[in-house]
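In keeping with the milestone schedule agreed at the kick-off meeting, the structural modelling team has produced records for the first pair of proteins. Each record is given below as a sequence line and a structure-token line. The laboratory manager (R.T.) confirmed that both were archived under the project's standard naming scheme.
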Amino acid sequence: MDLQHWQTQFENWLKNHHQHQDAAHDVYHFRRVWATAQKLAAEETRRLLREEFEQFPAEKIEAVCHAIAAHSFSAQIAPLTTEAKIVQDADRLDALGAIGLARVFAVSGALGVALFDGEDPFAQYRPLDDKRYALDHFQTKLLKLPQTMQTVRGKQLAQHNAQFLVEFMAKLSAELAGENEGVDHKVIDAFSPAG
């Protein structure tokens, strides 16, 4: 889950719907509560591991908490342990391939985001905007994920699954051009991940 995205969404909603609210309950109050909630969540994770999973090795608690924090793309926390690198790669792999494709359109649909810009679906003549167009998310984030992978196997899987997304884009491009049986090889050439 992209917490930064949701923080921005909530702040925009507050600005639009509660701009005349008293000063004690303004957007700055929300930001303070949001930051405190994140700190409490980290501390609660540590407590749960200690108290609810008593058999869990105490010396592993900080490593688990670090892996949870570092897995987030938006948090931009570098994974410092092998475990954190593996969890980060696993989370990013879930954003690629067939599952990633389904997730992009499921989230976009839930947020009321258009599938793509009908005039310029691959943003050749406009800035990318994945808050307005689901397909733009491929270029703003998903196709960049293979370069962020921490493990050798994670990178291999990410490149393979990113290529699946490129092939989807190529098929979509062909269909938009009225070619229902082929793919647009220019899209494959332009967007295929470097091996």
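The second protein of the pair:
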Amino acid sequence: MLISAINKEMRLLCRDLHGVAVLFMMPVLFMFIMSAALSDDNQINQQAKMVLLGQQNDDFNQQFSQVLKQQHFLITLDNIDELKKYQRQLQQNQIDLLIVNVNQQDTPLADIQPLQLWINPRFDPARLLAIKGALQRYYIQQRITDYLQDNHIQLANNQQEQIKQIEQQVNQQLIQKFNHITYYLSSEVWQDIYLNAQGEQIHKPNSVQHSVPAWLIFGMFFILIPLSNVMTMERQTNTITRLAMAQASAWQLIMAKFIPYFMINQCQFMGMVGLGYFVLPLLDMPTFSLVGSFRDYLLLSSCISLAALGYGLLISVIARTTEQAVVLGGGGIIIMAAIGGIMVPTYIMPEMMQMLAHFSPMGWALIAFQDLLLNQYSLAQIQFYLYLLMTFGLVCLMIAVFIYQYQLKTQVRF
């Protein structure tokens, strides 16, 4: 009976190719879109359109803008008298930032005024903070370098050979010290070292490794859509009556649906991993590669699938129509994704929302996936989240079996 029921579900799946296609196309599109959007994460600062205004023909501003251009910043230099013109452009979103430097090259360090930064209120605060940090670094570096140029001593009576030698030695030492200061200002302050759970240094995870797990989990939970379509069709075509007459148990019928869709979930997982590893590099995007044992990822994928299918089957037996399934199931998935860190990272959430994230199955799956992939945890170190996913899935399955058994007895029509 179980084999026959599985064959029936496979035939129904073949008739609902659109629903099955959504399960593969949606996470694939998410992966490509997010990978493309985040592939230049190291260049995000430079993409802002900026204008630097300063005193006309001031050498410092020209040198400062040239340094920024060498760092691939999109910056334009103009006269400070054009302030009103560029303020209008800022209001019209033609430029992102307007920098005004009222200082000149010969302004003493003690008299230097702060740079004015005119900002459009719609500009992202996190991006603004990164840009300000980069601009501050290059501005201070250029200001100190300019200050140290031609900074030497000249002794009286330097025509005498001994005094001239002392003057030359002191100036050489000053030049050497100034060169050291300039080199220090131009050097990197931070050396990023990533440490995994085993205490080993690892390479910096790329943007794809950060984003793909979330959307892969999101796509796996959307297995509910074709699943609910099939069960709604059973009610509309009175298939449930024939199943009841065949004296098939609710457990067998639920498992007959579980097994094919479980296989689809695993195909989703392996397909996404394969696309990330083989296709993304061909499109000049970061590679999505798994770190550690592939067996651990398969077990994690199985637990996620159990939770997703348990939830999907529960909603499918509760919902009377496809519309109800979409509202209940789709809405529930979006809520779990929102509070679980799929759509918005949990670290930027308020404390109350971070506490709610601990109750989201998608949040459990995401934490386990990131710990396995980014922190390189062992299977034993993520087993708590695996148990949570399995418990959630099994509880949902048991409730679904109980409800479906009741429906087989009460919804039979002759």
